[in-house]
Design goal:
This protein has about 120 residues and is mainly alpha-helical. Among the domains are: about 35 residues, no CATH class; about 40 residues, no CATH class. Helix content is about 35%, strand content about 5%. It contains five helices and two strands; from the N terminus they run H-H-H-E-E-H-H. The N and C termini lie far apart (about 85 Å).
Amino acid sequence: MGTEEDDLDLLLSLQDKVVETPPGTPPHTSDLLSDDESPRRAGPADMSIFRNAVKDCLDYDHIRTEKNAKTNRSKASNDISIEKFSGLRMRNQVVAPAELHDRFSDIRFVRLSTIN
């Protein structure tokens, strides 16, 4: 592991000493990118050296989250309740049925035909 740390230290120390483009080299227009463009990579980057270099700096334990959201959604979508006063079918109900009953209990529903 000492060699990886030495490589990282070497790269960090070279930042001030090495010029990005040698003065005698003509610029290649195909290699130049504008500020809005991102460099294209041939394949996925190997991050193992970076992970090994920074693993001592991490002071927390990473906890993986479970990816069971699809199974929970399918169960919730099957739970259809029918509202007592309006007869509407409700899915993914946020308010408890008892609270909904309390809110609608003082409201009197009248058919439109009786108003006309």
